[in-house]
Each structure stands twice: as C-alpha cells, then as structure tokens.
Amino acid sequence: MNQNILKQIEYPKSGILSKEVLKNKKTDVTLFCMAKGTEISEHTSTQAGFVYVLDGSGAFTLADKKIDMLPGVLIYMNENEIHSLKANKNTSFLLTLIK
C-alpha cells in the first residue's frame, strides 16, 4: 500500500475528522485531523500505540507528562496509559495501534 498521507489531511470547521488508513490483524492506522481548539479528554486504550504528528501544534498529556505536538514528533503510548490532547492550531496526526 502506497499513499500520500499529507494529501489526505482535511480539517473540519470544528471537532475531529478521522480516516482509516490501514487495518489488518496486527496494525490499525488512522489519520486524525483536529480543528483548532478541539480537545480529547483523558482516556486510555487497551492497545499500545504511536502518535506521529504531521501538521499543526497542540498539547499531548501522557501519564501527567506534557508533550508538545509539533510536526515530526513521535509519541509512544503503553496500553492503558491515561492520555489527552488539545489542538492549539489545526493539527493532524497518525495513530498506529499495535494489536
């Protein structure tokens, strides 16, 4: 599979737009596009995964540690780790869950 992910980025006027990029038995990859000011409250995932920031800027909180969401930043999350995020500008990232 070959795709230009950057060409798939489109920001909603508010909230979050998500697009499934790849899903198989071992991996689940989703593109998230968050409008400026959008927040995702504290939550967990039953799977470990990576967030790779493509565009924009935001704040990611992982187990009480603040991480700047800037293009090129890679964030690893263990399963069941509490995390939240806020888009300071229109922000896009790939979420890869490892099954």
TrEMBL record:
Superkingdom field: Bacteria
Any one Pfam family match given in the protein's UniProt record, by short name: Cupin_2
Residues annotated as domain Cupin type-2: 31-94
PANTHER family hit by this protein: SLR8022 PROTEIN
Record protein name field: Cupin domain-containing protein
Native organism: Candidatus Komeilibacteria bacterium CG_4_9_14_0_8_um_filter_36_9
